[in-house]
Amino acid sequence: MKKILAVLLIVCCISLSVFAGDFKFLFKDLDQHTELLYGFLPTLIQAGASYEGLELMPLNLTQIQLSVAGGYTQRAVFQHPDTGKPLSDLIQIYDVVQIRWDLEFLQGLGESPVEGKDLVTVYGGLQGRWEKALDSLLLNGGGIPKPSDIKRDRGTSGKIDVSSIDKWFSEEMEASSTRENSPIYPDFSANGKVTNILYAGARLNLMDDRWTTNDGILVEARLMWSPGYFGMWANGVWGKTLFDKKADNGRNIFSVVVLDRVRFSFLDGSGIPVFVQSSFSLGRNVRGFNSNSYNSNFSAVNSLEVRLAGPEFLFNGIFPRLNIFFDAGYGFGNYFNTGHSSVEAVKASNFLASIGAQLEMDFWDMIDLGIQIAYIFNKPNLRKPATNIQIGATFFLDF
After folding, report:
1. Minimal CB count within 10 Å: which of 42, 94, 198, 374?
2. Is 4 helix (H, G, I), strand (E, B) or coil?
3. Is residue 17 part of a domain?
4. Phi and psi for 39 in degrees, rounded to 5?
5. Mean pLDDT of the chain
6. Which residues contact 157 (CB under 8 A, 6 or more apart)?
7. With the C-alpha atoms ordered 104, 110, 114, 116, is the resulting torsion angle positive or negative?
8. What is the model's pLDDT at position 146?
9. Is residue 28 part of a domain?
10. CB 294 within 8 A of CB 379
11. pLDDT per residue over 316-339, tens digit each?
């Protein structure tokens, strides 16, 4: 693993020095650990470079992108490790140390009505990860808050479990699974696991995105495959600027934008790792709920949002923004990693909805650092079920 990463870094550095003028900095991802400064401290960054020196088609952009990442984050899982049935108690919190690499080729096709953009971009690549699951920082009193803060009363069901991973598998669940052979969690190996995913997709870009204003349509679809599972998703975003006031120097004073996003997804297989489950889970895509909760093969989510942005005080692209949202989604099919091999299918049917607001500082539409308050309907947030009001840190917009 270390050799692979070292080779990728060396190739990237050599290429940058030889063709520096054709490269652009690439920022891909940012993540946090919930128990370190309450989630406001970035603990994972993914960045790299995009080579744009090729011109396979006149007037259309050709890109080769390479990015790498490393970091330390936290996760929670919400399915029984043997049966895959959804859990309402003894939810396991654990930490993950990870290294990522992503090699991608993108080719523009046609000219978009939006100046400077290709009408369609087709792409494909290889996404890889090495991950190792570790006991939570909270286990030995580490992290902020302390264990006493996170072990909340769950009525008659007990408390969130911050015990060791091995204990959760072998004792608390009274199951035959261990971290090495769980049919529901194939990536809990004590020595870590490497996963590589092939993917391909296409993006139709009719969106005039000027940071504080959005007008048009953006549609994207992606297919992905890895041994043991496959998935697909499609996003559609519509935006309309209702009000836009600029200063004499061109900086935004105040703008009002309405957006609507629709997302459809499908994921199935016998060995879906947790990090893949995260982006496909219904709980991840309806704000106020948890990643890896309400997992199901199929999901459909609609997000309606009004954005109040500005002013840009000192620099273009840096400004405060208030996002008021209403999300609703439905998930059905089987819970992840059930219905295969020796695991009986566990049927899923969940409707989630939330309303709320995000108050954040936007940095060039790359990072949106702030706080989110959501009121959730119908179903509970499984980590904090005692209240319908959910508060947390934000890093990114949701499309």
Report:
1. 198
2. helix
3. yes
4. 90, 0
5. 85
6. 88, 89
7. positive
8. 46
9. yes
10. yes
11. 889 999 999 999 999 999 999 999
Q: Which of 13-17, 50-54, 151-155, 249-253 has the lowest mean pLDDT?
A: 151-155
DSSP-derived secondary structure letter, 117: -
Mean pLDDT (whole number) for 21-42: 78
State both tokens at 116.
């400077």
Contact between 95 and 33 under an 8 Å Cβ cutoff? The reply is yes
Number of domains in the chain: 1
ω before 86 within 30° of 0 (cis)? no
- Amino acid 37 reads L
Of 175, 183, 177, whose CA–CA distance to 340 is shortest?
Answer: 183
- Assign 286 to helix, strand or coil: coil
Predicted confidence band at 222 (pLDDT cuts at 50, 70, 90)?
very high
Q: What residue type is assigned to position 352 of the chain?
A: L
Q: Which residues of 122-158 are buried (b: 16+ CB within 10 A; e: fewer)?
A: ebbbebbbbbbbbbbbbbeeebeeebeebeeebeeee
394: tokens are: 């934000």
Question: 137 and 97 in contact (C-beta within 8 Å)?
Answer: no
Q: What is the CATH number of the domain that holds 195?
A: 2.40.160
Say if residue 153's pLDDT is above 70. Answer: no
**Which residues form the domain of 122?**
2-394
- 168 in a domain, yes or no? yes
Token representation of residue 100: 């990522």
- 14 Cα distance to chain centroid: 31
Q: Is residue 399 assigned to a domain? A: no
Give the type of residue at 312: E
